Amino acid sequence: MDGDAVCFFHASNRAALACDACGRFVCTVCDLQVGARHLCPACLSSGLDKQKLPEIVPRRFLWSQSALLIGLLGLFPGLLMWPFVIVSGPLGIFFALFGWKRPGSLVKGQRHWMAALGMILCLAQIVTWVAIIYLISAAQKR
Amino acid sequence: MSAPDPQYRKLSGRSLNWAGLGSLWIGDGYLLEVNSIFFLEWYRRYFLHDAMAFIVQRSKRRSAWCWVLGCVGGFGLLASGGAGWIGYANRKEDWHVALYVLAGIVGFVSIISLILLTINVLLGPSCRCHVLTSTGWHPLSAPNRLGPALRIQAQITPLIEAAQNQMPAPRAGTE
To answer: Closest chain B residue to A99 measured between Cα atoms?
Structure first.
């Protein structure tokens, strides 16, 4: 073993390869293959906790699609369920902005056009809502 | 530590089931099963070096749906026609409009059923797909039609074999 690199976690084991994430030398016991990548236990654990490793992400919430869905729901059923429109506009804009830089679908990627369209629809809801309130108040003053 | 999302290639065929829309993708050394509803996606991965086989089994789902949709469509059309005819025969009564409305609603449902029946027939025979690993059979949500499933099987099998060939051969232990 003299002159050989040793495992970061097991000083008595010869290193087999380096972790693709942090570069630590690991032995065959510590080598965890995830897809085409080789990770050490610490990086795998950290990736599991923070969901930063796309190879082990179990689910993803699609913020931009949600913003679009809220925008559409506010336009059609929102006309019937008017209390929904009060919250759907601001909520859709929040979803679009909050999720703008967050990762989107693992396979289809981030769809910014959906977030943008959702924001436009939600803004339209808010404008419509404000216009209705303004018209009602103006009619009451007369 | 954060890595960019890997590239995936979509495999043919998708399915609509109770869990949402299912599809199958191939990543770097693994199959990725994606189930999605509009705003949420779930992922399951099957590593090619763990897989032993991609299994396709014919199922009777298509014929079952054909029976259901055919019965709904056929009986619905008969009921719609009957309601329309009774309404027409009693057109001097006040309630004949209600029968026309009923005939319209039932007729609409029947036509939708018959359209779905046609699509179901055109999509071809149904099937179930599984990935066989050392831990057992893992059912896949997609594809659920035989044509795409066989195409995927033809694509996947060489990849599984290649991944298995890269594994070190088991050594006869002397220790």
So the answer is: B39
* Chain B residue with Cα closest to A19: B1
pLDDT band at residue B50 using 50, 70 and 90 as cut-offs = confident
Domain count along chain B:
2
Residue A32 has pLDDT above 90, yes or no: no
Q: Do B5 and A22 make contact, defined as CB atoms within 8 angstroms?
A: no
Looking at CA atoms only, how far is residue A59 from chain B in angstroms?
A: 4
Residue B81 in domain: yes
Range of the domain at B53: 9-59+126-161
* Banded pLDDT at A77 (limits 50, 70, 90): low
Nearest to A7 by CA among A33, A41, A34: A41
| CA pair distance B75, B107, nearest whole angstrom | 10
Q: Which domain holds residue A34?
A: 1-56
pLDDT of residue B175: 43
Distance from CA of B65 to the nearest CA of A (A): 30
Residue that the structure tokens 């290193």 belong to? A15
Spatial contact of A38 and A25, defined as CB atoms under 8 Å apart? no
User: Are residues B25 and B103 part of one domain?
Assistant: no
Q: Does one domain contain both B54 and B72? A: no
* Gap between the Cα atoms of A68 and B76, Å rounded: 36
